[in-house]
C-alpha cells in the first residue's frame, strides 16, 4: 500500500508540474510562436514543391531552336504501302512463336510465310481470273493469312458483299472447289464470316499464307471457289492470260465466220432521173 501511494503521488506531482510549465509558456506566448513557425515552415515547403512542378511542366514543352540550315530528315514511315486492295497487314515477329505453334493444325514444316511480292502476284492473278469469269454472278477476291489457314480457321468476308448478297441470319452454305467437290460451312451473318466447315476446306486443299481465292456466288447459299497459290502465282498468271487470249480469239473467229455465211445485202439501184 505504501508503494502504491508513493507512485500515485509522484504521477500527480508530475502532471501538476507539466500543467504549470504549460501555463508559463502560454503566459510568455512561446506556444503561439512555435505554432506560427511550424505553419510557416509547412507553407514554405508547399510553395517550393509547386515551383518544382511548374518548372518541370514548362521544361517539357520547351524545344531548343534549330540552328542548322540543312533540311530536317523526313520522319520514317513503317507502314507498308500495299497497292493491292483488301490485303491484311502482317506483324513482323519471329518466324513461329512457341505459343502460336502449339495451335497449328498442320505440321510446322508445311507452314510458310508469303512475301509481299508473292502475296501481291497471287492477288492480281485472282483478280484476273475473276474478270475472266463468264457467270456474271457476284464475286470477290480474298487473300489468305495464317489465321485463315493454319490455326484459327475463321474467314471474315467483305462486309458490303455480305450485306448486299448473303442471308441476314446464320445459314448453312456450300463451298465447291474447281473439281466439283463440295464442303459444308456455316455463315454467321452478325460476324460476316465463315466458320465450321471452312477448316475442312482449308486443310483439304492445303491453303497457305498468301494464297488468293475467288469466291463466286453461283447460288444464294453456294460459293464456287477458285484457288490461286502464292507459291506459283506467276505461272498461274500466264495461264490465265493465255486462256483469256484464246477466248478472245475464239470469239473473233466466230464473228468472222458469221459474217462470211451471211448473204450480202443488195443495195437499191437508183433510176436515172426522167428528162
UniProtKB/TrEMBL annotation:
<feature type="compositionally biased region" description="Basic residues">
    <location>
        <begin position="262"/>
        <end position="275"/>
    </location>
</feature>
<feature type="compositionally biased region" description="Acidic residues">
    <location>
        <begin position="239"/>
        <end position="257"/>
    </location>
</feature>
<keyword id="KW-0238">DNA-binding</keyword>
<keyword id="KW-0805">Transcription regulation</keyword>
<dbReference type="InterPro" id="IPR015300">
    <property type="entry name" value="DNA-bd_pseudobarrel_sf"/>
</dbReference>
<dbReference type="GO" id="GO:0005634">
    <property type="term" value="C:nucleus"/>
</dbReference>
<keyword id="KW-0539">Nucleus</keyword>
<dbReference type="InterPro" id="IPR003340">
    <property type="entry name" value="B3_DNA-bd"/>
</dbReference>
<dbReference type="GO" id="GO:0003677">
    <property type="term" value="F:DNA binding"/>
</dbReference>
<feature type="region of interest" description="Disordered">
    <location>
        <begin position="232"/>
        <end position="275"/>
    </location>
</feature>
<dbReference type="Pfam" id="PF02362">
    <property type="entry name" value="B3"/>
</dbReference>
<feature type="domain" description="TF-B3">
    <location>
        <begin position="140"/>
        <end position="231"/>
    </location>
</feature>
<dbReference type="InterPro" id="IPR044837">
    <property type="entry name" value="REM16-like"/>
</dbReference>
<protein>
    <recommendedName>
        <fullName>TF-B3 domain-containing protein</fullName>
    </recommendedName>
</protein>
<keyword id="KW-0804">Transcription</keyword>
